[in-house]
From TrEMBL:
<dbReference type="InterPro" id="IPR025545">
    <property type="entry name" value="YozD"/>
</dbReference>
<dbReference type="Pfam" id="PF14162">
    <property type="entry name" value="YozD"/>
</dbReference>
<protein>
    <submittedName>
        <fullName>YozD family protein</fullName>
    </submittedName>
</protein>
Amino acid sequence: MREIEVFIDTEEIADFFMKELIERGFVPSEAEIEELADITFEYLIAKSIIDEEWEEEIE
């Protein structure tokens, strides 16, 4: 199997959930959306779909 590099951003996940939930008639709070994004990210790690890597900040 070929390996590809994918970048997953929890802020992008949160935006996606917000849009999708509003379209379905739900009005979640920002805190709820952030929790959903974090849970989704953790799920992807638990299922070995992604690996968490930390970027070093350059100062």
